[in-house]
Amino acid sequence: MGAADVVPGVSGGTIAFISGIYEELIDSLNNINFSLLKSLKTEGFKNTWNQANGNFLLALLSGVFVSVISLVKGVEWLLEHHPVLLWAFFFGLVLASIIYVGKQIKTSSWNPKLFVAMGLGAAVAYLITTLDPSESSNANLFLFGAGALAICAMILPGISGAFILVILGAYSPVLEAINTRDLKTIFFIGAGAVVGLLSFSKLLKWLFEKYHELTLALLTGFMIGSLNKIWPWKVALTYRTNSKGMQVPLNEKSISPFDFDGDPQLFQAIGLMVLGILIILTLEKISAKTNVLKK
């Protein structure tokens, strides 16, 4: 999830869904509230920790944190030197994930409402991928709000939290803060993320409880719409200057891979795309076997 969240266009929520922990994550986040303080006082630390599903959250969030810190420079390098190969791998992941998430909807449940929800989700996600990024800002309130909005997207399959940061103009400041260990910026982004995560997870839990199939259809649509952003072959329409003073693409347009004259990376990209698909199929089989053993 941490590796996916670093890449503008890929959602950590997608990884959570295909690994079979998505709904447990939402339920666990909803357990974090002021009632835990009362439980801590009356029932002790161990019972309170279990109530909050502490082992699950600690393992997951620690993994996300370590991954972000350790992989951010590597992902930046890949985006700069091998963008087609990186996007191809994630495109394969998300493409197979769409089928996986869609299969979670019972065949007998499909009706016009679900197709409308899927279409709406796809349209919203697609429009988000076409928005023009804003100018960056280092204001504390702005960073707090950016963290809150980005984390909401990060737990939605198909909506990239990193891309939301790009649109808001906060992606470069956040990456720079991580690389330079700017604790002030990290604190305000992190505080916004905590508030946004705990608040938005309550809405998601309610949606899953009341409209489970409809919510799955909407999330499937989000993932379909996000494919425009992670399509490997693009041409830059406009550029911006990043924090290192380098010119990097700002607005891009998806094109056919055959529009690249003799692209030497074509077969490598297709291979990585297939690898991404195979990883999802493997995870699906492992998840199915795990569920059988649990039963």
Structure write-up:
The chain has 295 residues and is mainly α. The chain is 73% helix and 5% strand. The protein contains 13 helices and 2 strands. It has helices spanning 2-6, 12-18, 22-30, 35-51, 54-81, 83-103, 112-130, 140-154, 161-168, 171-180, 183-210, 212-230, 266-294; strands at residues 234-241, 247-254. Helix 10 (171-180) packs across helix 11. The radius of gyration is 20 Å and the shape is globular. The model has no long low-confidence stretch (mean pLDDT 80).
Structural class, please? mainly alpha
| Terminal-residue CA separation | 27 Å
| Spatial ordering of strands, largest sheet | 1-2
Whole-number average pLDDT?
80
Q: What is the β-strand count? A: 2
The portion of residues forming beta strands comes to 5-15%
Could you estimate the helical fraction of the residues in percent? over 70%
The shape is: globular
Largest sheet: 2 strands, antiparallel
Number of helices: 13
- Based on CA atoms alone, the radius of gyration comes out at 20 Å
Helix and strand pattern = HHHHHHHHHHHHEEH
Total number of distinct structural domains: 1
Uncertain stretches: none
